[in-house]
């Protein structure tokens, strides 16, 4: 169901409000580049600081703008099972192609609690569900046993965005899960090594800026042309790294603002990059553009 290149799209703001004109242009650029799908109101979209009304309107507009030209996966994960169920139901009613469910952050549930949380959400919707494992941010790891158990007990839990940073974890999941269950990298810089052991794509931050290049990287891996994928991975390595020198999505939004694609605004507690890190990011981007 979910394979290829998905962009965890940023949310453009202007004067404190969501800039829907800029959002439409961002989506059109993604579609034109051949992206497989867009994640609307994921964590890269600053979902913790979006109101419920804003989340709903972004999801609805993203689906309307995409017009079926790419998949739209709605971020529906929170640390409240009840709220996540409501979000998944809304995404289904709006016409999304799937729901992305991040692990419940802060509460630090047990593996049994994680299983019950995700199962309750999956049982409440017919949407295909992509789990999102990012222990570095959430403080909890969706263990392989729990992923396998969820896949066996919930027919619509069909994929995982894996951002544990472990190639061994991806290899273990691939070995233990049915082939139809897909694994996507949650880190741009690990797309190549993850795909070499069984992942089938990426949910990308870098594709906010370089959707065509990320699509090419994933396609090369899918076709078994790992030499071409390696060359592209090496060329983009510094970008993958420097887009995270400050909290995501601050560097990505800074670079998009330099292009004139959006107005640079993030919501507190995020703030603008330091001057030193801006200089570093600008240098990295300029070197990449010169090397094209």
Which CATH first-tier class would you pick? Alpha Beta
State the fourth-level CATH superfamily. Aldolase class I
- The total count of helices amounts to 12
Secondary-structure content class = alpha/beta
Can you describe what's shown?
The protein is an alpha/beta fold and 292 residues long. The chain is 48% helix and 14% strand. It has a single domain (4-224), classed as Aldolase class I (TIM Barrel), CATH 3.20.20. Strands 9-8-7-6-5-4-1-10 form an eight-stranded parallel beta sheet. It has a two-stranded antiparallel sheet with strand order 2-3. Helix 4 (111-123) packs parallel to helix 6, helix 9 (211-222) runs antiparallel to helix 10 and helix 10 (226-242) packs antiparallel against helix 12. The longest helix is centred in the last third of the chain and has 17 residues, at 226-242. The mean pLDDT is 97.
Throw out a few tags for this protein:
292 residues, 48% helix, TIM Barrel, alpha/beta, eight-stranded parallel beta sheet
Condensed summary:
The chain is of the alpha/beta class. The chain has helices at residues 20-32, 52-66, 81-94, 111-123, 135-138, 144-153, 167-176, 191-196, 211-222, 226-242, 250-259, 275-290; strands at residues 4-8, 13-14, 17-18, 37-40, 71-75, 98-102, 129-133, 157-162, 182-185, 201-204. It contains twelve helices and ten strands.
Secondary structure elements and pairings:
Layout: E1 4-8, E2 13-14, E3 17-18, H1 20-32, E4 37-40, H2 52-66, E5 71-75, H3 81-94, E6 98-102, H4 111-123, E7 129-133, H5 135-138, H6 144-153, E8 157-162, H7 167-176, E9 182-185, H8 191-196, E10 201-204, H9 211-222, H10 226-242, H11 250-259, H12 275-290
Parallel strand pairs: 1-4, 1-10, 4-5, 5-6, 6-7, 7-8, 8-9
Antiparallel strand pairs: 2-3
